[in-house]
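Duplicate of earlier report; F5/8 type C domain-containing protein input re-posted below.
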Amino acid sequence: MTQESEGSSYDMKRSRQWVALVMVAIMIVTMMPIAQAEEALPPTQTEEQTPANPPGEAYPVEVTIPSDLPGAGTEGVIASVYGAVYHNLAAGLSYEWSQEPEASYPDEGNKLTDGIYGASNRSDVAWVGHHLGKTREVVFDLGAKKSLTGIKANFLEDWPTNNVLVPLTVSMYVSDDKVNWGLLKDNATQKLWNDGKYTETYVWDGSKDGIKAIGPDAKIAYARYVKVTFTMHTRAMTFVDEIEILGEDGKVAGAVTVPTHTPKFLAAGEATAGIEHLGLLYNGQYANDLGIWTKERIIPNISYVDKDGKIKDRLFDGVLYLGINSPNPGRDFGGRAYLEDWQWYLDKTFAVGGDMDALNAAAKEVSDALNESGVKEKVVLMIPDPGESITNFGAIEQGGESLNFNDSVGKEKALANREKAVQWWLQQVKSRWEAKGYANLELVGMYWFEEQISTSQSGPDLIRSVSSTLHDMQISGKDLKFFWIPHFFAYKAFMWKDVGFDAVTIQPNYFFEPTDIERLEDSANLAKQYGMSNELEFDDRMLTDGVFRERYIDYLNSGAKTGLMKDGFKSYYQGNNAVYNTAVSNDPATRVLYDWLYQFVKGTYQVNEAPPSEVDVQMNGKPFQSGMKLPDSESVSFTWKLRTDDGLTKVTATYDGKPYTAGTVIPLAGKLGKHELNITVTAGHMVTKSYVIEATTNASGMKALVDRFEQAKQFTNSATVRSLNNYLEMMKRYEGKDTAQVTKYLQGFNAKLDEFKKAGTIKDEAYNTLKESVYYLIGNLAQNKTVEASSTEGNNANYAPAKAVDGFPASRWASEYVDNTWFLVDLDEVKEMDTVRIDWEYARADKYKLLVSNDKQNWINVMPNDGIITAHDGKETIQFNPVKARYMKLQGIKRATDYGYSIYEFGVYNLSGAVDVKGIEGIQVKVDEETKKVTIDGLLMNGVLTNVKLKVLDPKGKVQIEDETKSTVAGSFQFTFKLTGNLKGTNEAYLSTGYMSEPVKVTFEYSKENPGKGHDK
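Output:
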């Protein structure tokens, strides 16, 4: 099982990512740390797995299908193998759904029985679509008991383009009262989950399959009601079309009533070797020594300890030791470990002072503390997966050949080699266990590591062989049981008894991904239907994250409601250390998680659905209201307090998607835009409240940054500082008055930043921070605009395309796992643009294009040649020649990871312009008409200290004055002079420097008829 906990868990999950990619066909892996059990998609279909009866064949006999109809079978008269005449008893019938289909793909009442077969295309209206939720059931009432020889159900695969997958499992039942049901057959997908468009027909053929509830000799069922169920995916949709029920009215010879089965959990007892609560302890190679189990860490797992650490009662009555990683990089026991790795694990587990010795010592201390001398802790040990890709496993016999598990040596030999490796493992366990003679432990079983039944032809055969070997051996005179913990999407999990498992708990996998809480009920129902039980899943994240705390409580609540708590055998996945960490915590709100677990183990836990208290939040010591705007020169710090604190309610927070500890100071410099603080309060239920702040800036704020960076020696010369400040001064003069002028000087400021960066006169910190200010003030043309994408990961609203343009740095759009993906922004009108910024999540592109259009039909690359861009991690800026367009599209070509494309923020900007900014700007003229005194000042925009020349012409064009002055240290200048004569009218002043190609002209008026009143120009 895949490990999930703090510290080592991330490495553990990452090390098993390859397993997910093979098993899940790159579909169930999340962006967060990989879940405990990657919910696997069966890998690509092998030649041996071609369905025995492909769509188009009838069951139990041939049916003629019009050549223009897709799918399998049509109603018609057919000759049965029994000599009778059978037809489609469901034709035209109505039926009942356990959950209504999606409104966009509805069922008006008889789409499943109207004889119209859906084409291999999601858009065909013949299909009925379902999305999310629990396993679907559709029930047919035949009106009277009839003789049934076959059932067919047709489904669509359209993946990944249209997010439709065929069901993993389709089951077929019959009943006489619509309450109690007998099983005809469980069907696993035979075509498996592959890219493309096709249909698959799931079939019960009595003549070939028999009746599962009776045996292979029973061929015809006699019943009134028929039920077809199919499992639902957590992300993809399920499309179903025709369902046919083949048979004859009345009772024919050989027709039998099918015995019913009452769904129920597998109870603790002989099959589980008496274990009721099996705790998982991971003892492979993990960071921070979390794979090394000490007596102190074990005791709170096998016994309940009070707040002082004193042993008070039993907890887990069974321990499963298993590992994921070996010390050799890139190897793990999920099918990528070799003989030396297997030996390492055995040596570590059975070493003097090793994991098993620690468990033995812990078990003794618990028995002594409880005065239960002679009570032994039951132990289950894993069997590594002998992966079919291994070609040089190693020689298990002295001088023997290295075992090859791959079919390249022939299927029979590959299977035999895998069997040899497992037999060697079992003998090693037997000899080492018996040699140690643990006084306080009892080895009761072995655990099969692979979390589904392999889709290879030999997969079931290998498990049957291992089961037979295991059940024929004894260790220390004790029989052994075969344990298994498949994931929720385990292939052919329903056949667990057929391959020889004794005790099985299926993983709901609810803890690890944002699925609906219905998953827990669905998992319980499936476990009951298959005669399994359920695993409870949690890890250390529940200590600090309200989302995972609530999910943990959901498991406990569900277990109490479904009967699992009292009726079922249970396994417990805890990451590496969650049980221990809750047991020793001094925080009552954390310690109570351990107490609730103990209550659950004892069967006394009470469903906890209490709403949490209100919480008051403060920012910088003052009451905080969402939506506040703050200058980016400030820092923020948040605290909170429950209005009603029972000591058990937990408050956790995230800031921009990352865990936040109360009182942490966050500087806003360089972090312009919206930021989100999420406060989560968890009692029985969780409530999350969002608080938004916006860090803003203006010319003054940017000048403060320039001054700070100057003090920090981020500039290599003073001219750079003077130039930047003069652009900011010009922005400041027009703020709130003339947006176009502000934009002009902001674009000029940006051009200077790039110029100075290229010249090496500004360092990275200053450049990057000031650049963020430019992007913020110039504005993202795409923000909050209408967006589209070719896909959204799992149709999950949390990853919707709009998340990439909402202005929040932690939200993101994510696509399905396919290279050919596009993301499109509608700017509402034609805009000029020259820059795109993409803030990639880990799942980024390797190659992509940026294209623009005015009609969403004809697209032009913004980059030259073929337009292909090689992506880079993190924030990526793409600059191009200015273009005018309404639509901007990112076209994915190739992904850089096994996931899809994921973008935190997608920005479109127009930074070009400012071409009319002159060498001298901000010229101001003041005329005192009474004294005829004129003052002219201005700013040197390139920041270079130089002489400025002045020539003034009177209204008749006569030179009034010629002068020259030196600029100030700040890069400004000023001229003061007196006008001669009393000539009324417009005067012209010309200003220039040695580096200017032409002077700057400014005019001013002189009115001698209005003495004593000065005016400015």
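The domain at 615-693 is CATH 2.60.40 (Immunoglobulin-like).

Merging into the original ticket.
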